[in-house]
């Protein structure tokens, strides 16, 4: 009887420890970002924009070089997003990740391309997800949505943008600037990335962009 009691107690302690570790991770900054990455991949639905890619006749072949035919497709996709989606901050503090509802990073809510197109508006990550998916639908494989911070002097704020790999490196595409040739590339500091195929970390610093 004592052995059974001790065994049960050990199992309960192990279960409690496991739950505590998971809870602590989920409530840490790293855990929250990881959950955002899962959500980002889940909402990166390329099928939502295949018809638009076909309509724009996007034909992206890699490696992409700024100024070539593939880059012109990139520009067409970029300016289509800029023309059809207005910038609007989130107003909902609740998100759904794999069927569960969570409050993440204050009021962040990632929308799928279909939701952004339906609303005709979205914030930085919504516009970036839409653009990334549109470029994927157009044939790009080395393209990703990046989440991180934008720094200007002593100020910084959370931000998201699209990057595509070109012959000279990762090129920033930020639909919120409304200009495909992003200025102040040194102000963009990526932490992690995602697209329809997966997600990952940028090891504490953004990779060099063209």
Q: What's the helix and strand layout?
A:
Elements: H1 2-26, H2 29-43, H3 50-56, H4 69-84, E1 86-87, E2 95-97, E3 100-102, H5 113-119, E4 121-122, H6 124-137, E5 143-152, E6 155-166, E7 169-173, E8 188-195, E9 198-201
Parallel strand pairs: 1-4
Antiparallel strand pairs: 2-3, 5-6, 5-8, 6-7, 8-9
Helix pairs in contact: 4-6, 5-6
Structure in words:
The protein is α+β, with helices and mostly antiparallel strands and 210 residues long. It has one domain: C8orf32 fold, CATH 3.10.620.30. It is 40% helix and 23% strand. The protein has six helices and nine strands; from the N terminus they run ααααβββαβαβββββ. It has helices spanning 2-26, 29-43, 50-56, 69-84, 113-119, 124-137; strands spanning 86-87, 95-97, 100-102, 121-122, 143-152, 155-166, 169-173, 188-195, 198-201. β6 and β7 form a beta hairpin. α4 (69-84) packs antiparallel against α6. It is globular. The N and C termini lie far apart (69 Å). This is Transglutaminase-like domain-containing protein. Pfam families: Transglut_core.
The structural domain count equals 1
- Which CATH class applies here? Alpha Beta
Count of beta strands? 9
Under the CATH scheme, the architecture is: Roll
Query: On the 0-100 scale, what is the average pLDDT?
Result: 81
Morphology call? globular
Q: Main sheet?
A: 5 strands, antiparallel
Could you please say which CATH topology applies here? C8orf32 fold
Strand content: 15-25%
Unreliable stretches (pLDDT < 50, length at least 5) are: 16-27, 101-105, 205-210
Radius of gyration: 20 Å
Helix content class: 40-55%
Count of helical stretches: 6
Distance between the termini: 69 Å
SS-based class: alpha+beta
How do the strands of the widest beta sheet line up side by side? 7-6-5-8-9
Order of helices and strands: HHHHEEEHEHEEEEE
């Amino acid at each position: 009887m004592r052995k059974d009691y001790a065994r049960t107690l050990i199992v309960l302690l192990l279960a409690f420890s496991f739950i505590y570790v998971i809870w602590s991770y989920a409530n840490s900054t790293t855990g929250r970002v990881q959950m955002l990455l899962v959500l980002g991949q889940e909402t990166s639905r390329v099928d939502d924009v295949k018809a638009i890619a076909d309509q724009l006749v996007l034909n992206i072949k890699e490696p992409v070089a700024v100024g070539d035919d593939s880059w012109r497709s990139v520009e067409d996709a970029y300016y289509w997003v800029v023309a059809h989606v207005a910038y609007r901050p989130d107003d909902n503090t609740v998100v759904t990740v794999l069927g569960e509802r969570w409050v993440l990073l204050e009021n962040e809510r990632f929308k799928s391309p279909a939701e952004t197109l339906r609303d005709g508006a979205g914030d930085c990550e919504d516009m970036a997800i839409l653009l990334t998916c549109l470029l994927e639908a157009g044939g790009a494989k080395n393209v990703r949505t990046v989440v991180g911070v934008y720094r200007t002097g002593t100020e910084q704020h959370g931000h998201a943008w699209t990057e595509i790999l070109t012959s000279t490196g990762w090129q920033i595409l930020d639909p919120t600037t409304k200009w495909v040739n992003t200025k102040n590339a040194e102000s963009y500091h990526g932490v992690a990335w995602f697209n329809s195929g997966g997600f990952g970390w940028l090891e504490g610093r953004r990779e060099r962009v063209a």
